[in-house]
Amino acid sequence: MSIVRFKKLNIEAYKPGKSSIKKFRKIIKLSANESALGMSSRVKKAISSKGLNFFRYPDGKSKKLRSQIAKKFKCNKDRIICGAGSDEVIQMLCQLFLKPRDEVIVPQFSFLMYRIYAKIVGANVIYSRETNFKVSVSEIIKKVSKKTKIVFLANPNNPTGTYLTKFELIELRKKLRKNILLVVDDAYAEYMKNTDYKSGLDLFRNKQNVFILRTFSKIYGLSSLRVGWGYGSKKIIDALNIIKPPFNVNEVAQKAAVESLKDSKFISRSIKHNILYAKKLKNFLNKYDISSNKVSANFLLLNFTKCKFGARYIYKKLKSKGIILRSTEDGYKIRNMLRLTIGSKSENFKFMKEVEIIFKK
Ligand SMILES: Cc1ncc(COP(=O)(O)O)c(C=O)c1O
Hints:
The chain is of the alpha/beta class. The protein folds into 2 domains: 108 residues, Aspartate Aminotransferase, domain 1; 222 residues, Type I PLP-dependent aspartate aminotransferase-like (Major domain) (Aspartate Aminotransferase, domain 2, 3-Layer(aba) Sandwich). The chain is 37% helix and 17% strand. The chain contains 12 helices and 14 strands. The strands form 3 sheets. The chain has a 7-stranded mixed β-sheet with strand order 2-10-9-8-7-3-4, sandwiched between helices. A 5-stranded mixed β-sheet has the order 1-13-14-12-11, with helices on one face. Strands 5-6 form a two-stranded antiparallel sheet. Helix 7 links the parallel strand 8 and strand 9. Helix 1 runs antiparallel to helix 9, helix 2 packs parallel to helix 9 and helix 5 runs parallel beside helix 6. The protein is globular and about 60 Å long. The N and C termini lie far apart (63 Å). The mean pLDDT is 96. Pyridoxal-5'-phosphate binds next to helix 3.
């Protein structure tokens, strides 16, 4: 009997941060690094206007959005490609660059979609060791071989929250062979006020062998609309445009993204909020011997090694109160840690109150 056959996939599917708990109608979701302040009121207004109509296909080139991005970030609109989330841009990059058995280097504890999309097209994923949950330039260089095509890196990194300094990032690029594409994922760049940090876009916008990823899912608060962008050489962007699905970013997403870029006040408020509460939460958790990375993006990686309770126990206890953190065992394979997204003021206080109760018992 003949049957339809498909590829054998030795891939673990992406498991997103949980977003519901049985028996809870309303939960506190601190598991997906979404915006603590929701989305800007300016965006809400724009997408609830009567002007919207869905019977036409969206602009497949995202022209207005690319122009607005170019204006805001002082870059060239012809070197921008928009995707249904930066996720889709990662997928397109893998399709464009990788043949079966090519090699891709990703740090040991990095964002999972790099390895997933690379494996789907048959590439071999090589993991570079991290030092104390921080990406190591020398460990990446050690893994380079003749077959290396791409090095993927999120800076700051998810889920560890650590980052390469400006100088380390420059060093990494210098040490990589010229025909290896360095992909710097700036997903959390807007949150970063650390003086030794510079975004991939700021450092490498004119480099032919660096590709930058950006997203509207984090500080801009548009996760659900799925919109992100990539910045690369004109040659790479032109080739990506050949494989890009024709209408990949819907009209609402394009409109919302354009408006979100105009609301600088909302962005400043989000940054302030994040720094204030990331510090507060970090200090608070320290009292219970739960340590975490230096404040960077809109999340903290909590380490329970010195704590009297383990990560799993705390995860369960919080879950029973309707609060969800991100397990780092799923996918990332990091034991006895949890990733905590910085929430709204009330969410953060509720979280702290529940932690206090757990430790009082
Ligand atoms: C480092 C990193 N890159 C990309 C993404 C995905 O973003 P998008 O929603 O634009 O696909 C995430 C989301 O968690 C992330 O942490």
